[in-house]
Write a structure and sequence with these properties.
Chain lengths: ~110, ~80
């Protein structure tokens, strides 16, 4: 069981590293937002799944297990909300997309 | 279980690297996104340190940090949209 926990934590560490590299190198606000959500979803969910398995099957500490489950549920519920709010705010504040972008369907929807 | 401690140190180092983008980020939305990402990485470090030490008090701190980060990011988003 401990090797499953290690595998989940290394998985999330890889995705956190990929998200940080993408956040430093992406050309655009919206592309960087994609890397940020990558860190939040894959990284945090991997760490929380590993923590649930470790605290349930190795530590037998069910208080920590319930806290980790509440935290995972909270992250799953609130990550799309905050990402949506900040993307909409950045668009209305006037952040431009990169020149190679091929379509802007939110603008087309607003013009209707 | 020192693997947890080493992984927590790696997450905190990644959060420190993101301060570069916090300094050079061109607009306010970039800085809000990067602050949210730093918040999440510190949360991951706290969860791993709670697993390493076996004490549940660090999970409380991580949960409160998650709630405050969500509220801050959503408020900055609504403010930039102009509806606040």
């Amino acid at each position: 069981m401990i090797y499953v926990v290690y595998a989940l934590i290394f998985f999330s560490a890889f995705f956190a590293l990929a998200g940080v590299v993408g956040m430093l190198r992406m050309p655009d606000t919206f592309c960087r937002m994609q890397s940020s959500t990558n860190i939040t979803t894959f990284g945090m969910i991997g760490v929380i799944a590993g923590g649930v398995l470790y605290s349930g099957f190795v530590l037998h500490n069910y208080e920590m297990l319930i806290k980790l489950l509440v935290m995972g549920l909270f992250y799953i519920l609130t990550t799309p909300i905050s990402a949506h709010a900040i993307a909409k705010g950045a668009y209305h504040h006037g952040n431009k997309m990169i020149d190679e972008a091929v379509c802007d369907q939110y603008k087309e929807d607003m013009q209707q | 279980m020192s693997v947890f401690l080493y992984c927590a140190i790696c997450f905190v180092v990644l959060a420190l690297v993101l301060i570069v983008r916090l300094v050079i980020g061109p607009t306010a939305a970039d800085r809000a996104v990067v602050a949210d990402a730093i918040d999440v990485l510190c949360d991951m470090g706290l969860v791993l340190f709670a697993l390493y030490s076996g004490r549940g008090i660090y999970l409380d701190i991580a949960l409160i940090t998650a709630v405050l980060g969500f509220i801050g990011t959503t408020l900055v988003g609504k403010y930039l949209e102009g509806k606040l």
